[in-house]
Design a protein that fits this description.
Length: about 210
């Protein structure tokens, strides 16, 4: 009887081994482009708008069942404007996002909800219009790095077993110190960079 049970176990486990090998996580890489809409803020006593956003980014993700995670790096180029164009700003968010997928992995339409945290690498360059308006030849605008949080919603539309179109929208919450420098003096204020970023792109799903 023991030999029979042993043989049965070998047959069952042996036939299941290929299936178990397919149970690994779904991994992917992707690219995306998009734009953003940011709220205005009052900085140095003036209403400051964040306009003309363009977004380019790359992603790397992993999913097991209904839970997934993604690391992404974007480059967001915007203009800071009051009554003139004050500065050209580049924000590079490095984001870690957790996703919840209500549908199964095999579903061709795969919506998700997400939340995460990010480190924002910020840089600013004073515009020629701002330098001329200030009358200071060494006029500079400096933007500090920051940390923020975000909420996301999106969907993967799988056109094959390895390729998916992706639409993603996230609302980010972060703020930074903005400093204006002259010859030997500088003044700083806080700028909120809260806004909605919408992107679309392609994702490659590595075969299991």
């Amino acid at each position: 009887m023991k030999r029979i049970w042993g043989l049965a176990a070998v047959l069952v486990l042996g036939s299941a081994a290929p299936s178990l090998a397919l149970l690994g996580p779904e991994t992917s890489i992707g690219i995306r482009v998009g734009t953003g809409i940011f709220q205005s803020d009052k900085v140095f006593g003036e209403t400051t708008d964040i306009e003309s956003a363009t977004v380019l980014g790359v992603t790397a993700g992993m999913r097991q069942g209904k839970l997934g995670g993604e690391i992404s790096v974007d480059q967001i180029s915007v203009d800071l404007k009051t009554n003139i164009k004050e500065a050209e700003v580049v924000v590079v968010p490095i984001l870690l996002t957790v996703h919840f997928h209500p549908m199964e992995e095999e579903a061709p339409f795969d919506p998700y909800l997400g939340a995460g945290v990010g480190f924002y690498k910020n840089s600013a360059h004073a515009s020629s219009e701002a330098r001329k308006s200030s009358g200071i030849s060494v006029y500079k605008v400096v933007m500090d790095d920051s940390v923020g949080f975000h909420l996301a919603v999106g969907a993967n539309l799988k056109v094959s077993s390895v390729v998916a179109f992706v639409v993603d929208a996230r609302y980010a919450f972060t703020s930074t110190d903005l400093t204006v420098k002259g010859f030997s003096s500088s003044v700083s204020d806080t700028l909120s960079v809260n806004g909605l970023v919408v992107t679309a792109g392609l994702k490659y799903l590595f075969p299991k």
